[in-house]
Amino acid sequence: MERSVKRLLRNGTYIYSAVMLIFCVVEAARREYAVAAAMAVSAVILMALDIAVTRQRVKGIAANVQTAVDSLSKTVSSTAPWPMVELRLPDGEILWHNRQFQKALNTVESRVGEQIGDVFRDFNLDWLQSGKLEAPNEQQIRERRFRCLGFMPKRESGAEAVAQLLWIDSTELLATRDEYLRSRPVVSIILIDNYDELTNNLSDSAVSNLNAALNERISAWAEKIGGLLRKLERNRFLFIFESKELFRITEGKFSLLDSTREVTNPNGIAATISFGVGKDGESFKENFDFASLALEMALSRGGDQAVIKDKYDFSFYGGRAVETERRSKVKSRVMASSLTALIQPASRVFLMGHRNADADAIGAACGVVALCRSLGKKANIVVNETASSAPKLLEVIRADSLYKDVFLSGQDAMLQADAKSLLIVVDTNRPDQVESPDLLESMNQVAVIDHHRRAADYISNAALNLHEPFASSASELVTELLTYTVDAKTILPCELLALMAGIVLDTKNFTVRVNSRTFEAAAFLRYQGVDPVEVKRIFQSGFDETVRRYRIIEAARVYRDEMAIACAEEDVSRALAGQAADELLAIDGIRVSFVLFRQGDAVFISARSVGTVNVQVILEPLGGGGNAVTAGAQLKNTEMTEARNRLVAAIDHYFEP
Fold first, then answer.
1. Residue 629: what pLDDT?
2. How far, rounded to the nearest angstrom, does the alpha carbon of residue 17 sit from its chain's CA centroid?
């Protein structure tokens, strides 16, 4: 019966149905409704049978094709020259593998039923399930190295998901690649960064002996590394070596930095060098450009360190030695002239410091306002007054009628700025730390005046960059500029007070990072009438703040015999934490202090040092910055305990030999 139905259907079901429907219409016209209904039902039944049989036939063909494909796949896979495996997802159980897989594992036993993670350590299938066709890491099978490829065949709904993997032996190819990477050229520039101080007032024979000692140290070190060393100038060397040697150099933490300091001139001044290393460039020229940028970065951070520059970032080594002053009044005079030339054609000038502006940022900004006023240019200071750490200083400045409309928010500044406006950033060189990053990004012309050690993400598009890491403060730098550009009588008393307050803040009342230039700047301000008592009154704190500060000090614990680490149990301001860190240094035997405090979901670290330890280098791996004696860091989404542990680890790393 079934065969008769199929035969009937194969002979043209749709023709029969159409004819019967025609007769149905005819019979209905003749009013033979029973006959017409019977014909209509018969036509529908025939069409339904046809559809059912067709679907069954298609399913049968698909099943036969899938069986043939699976059989062919297994046959081909079994004889394939590379190891192949079929897995069940998501657990990774091996359902089938070929002989080449057993051969690669050097086993005759079947691994069917085992987990792929048990066969290969640390192997996972996340890459395959995310849609990728190749595993991110190569696979080591005995002494051979393989690339793993995989795909997931489409299955009907309800069927278990499977994946097929194959390993391609790429041992020779990967070995060639590794050798290529290891032999890539690395270009470095070695600079004796205090050469002028070493040779100042020395006789020719003494200079010759000093050069011989330095050349011997550098040549002996370079000979151990291998490569090409050439002297370019009296204090500059070019050193080219293979990339495989860079790991050995960094593991030794650029030992030439330490050995060079053993060379001293007859006056007892130790020699220091700076490294600029460029790698991963497309050519020798690009590597040389990277090395030049790295050397510039090393010098801007105080010298006596090594900086590696690749396509994406900087890496820092060294920088632990006490910085020695290397500044020139000639440079300050030239910078004053350049800044004046930059301000004159500007339509208006905006001043901006770092977030939570302190007395140094505000003082430096006010000093530049005085310069702009002498040139007839309107200047505004961008500051968030509610978040400033120097509210008393802002109150004093606002009392002057000329500062009635000087302070602006970042949004107001963006609305008032035009294409010819100039932005001068003071007391920071990091774009992510400024008061208004959006304003910085929108300005065509930017100048930077800063004394902090340069960070890897510094403001790189500045038309003028007065960066002196040996200066005590940004206020000191601006005071020097004013002595060359402005009639001192035109500087307002509140501006003089702000500049002095900035110097006092960053020098901790003239006790740290103080040099002759600092006292010269302070003497200039005092001569113009600054009252030291007024400066002291600005930094006075209330009774409640004093009690909270001593609670922080009470919570401090000594680490490594000379470091105090305090974790504030309550939310405190940055200014209060900084004051607590300063007072911890007054304790006998304490050379370094760290105060950790919470604000929102972040833990902040305020660090201070008397100069024997570089706190900026300690906090830099934590994303912090600053200078050798004053630094800070911010750890977002971090608990206090975790923040303290990370700080302790950074301290231990700093003291590693």
1. 84
2. 76
Q: Is 530 found in the same domain as 424?
A: yes
DSSP state of 323: P
Give, in order, the Cα–Cα distances in Å from 263 to each of 154, 208, 230, 304, 338.
72, 13, 20, 13, 38
Tell me the average pLDDT across 23-30.
Answer: 68
Q: Which residues contact 141 (CB under 8 A, 6 or more apart)?
A: 83, 104, 105, 120, 167
Q: For 612-655, what is each residue's pLDDT tens digit?
A: 888 988 998 898 888 888 889 999 888 999 999 999 999 998 88
Percentages (nearest 5) of helix, strand, coil residues in the chain: 45, 20, 35
Residues 42-100: tens digit of each pLDDT:
667 767 776 776 666 656 555 554 554 454 345 445 556 788 888 888 888 888 888 88
Per the prediction, the chain carries an average pLDDT of: 85
Q: Which residue segment(s) compose the domain that 38 sits in?
A: 2-75
- Structural domains in the chain (count): 5
Work out the pLDDT band at 5, boundaries 50, 70, 90: very low
- What is the CATH number for 164? 3.30.450.20
Please check whether residues 99 and 144 belong to one and the same domain: yes
**Residue 58 DSSP one-character state:** H
Are the beta carbons of 642 and 655 closer than 8 angstroms? no
Residues 237 and 114 in one domain: no
Asked if residue 358 and residue 434 are part of one domain, the reply reads yes
pLDDT of residue 453: 78
183, 340, 356, 416, 530 from 328: Cα distances, Å: 42, 19, 31, 37, 26
In this predicted structure, the answer to whether residue 557 has a pLDDT above a threshold of 90 is: yes
At 143, the amino acid letter reads E
Q: Do 382 and 515 fall into the same domain?
A: yes
Helix (H), strand (E) at residue 140: strand 139-141
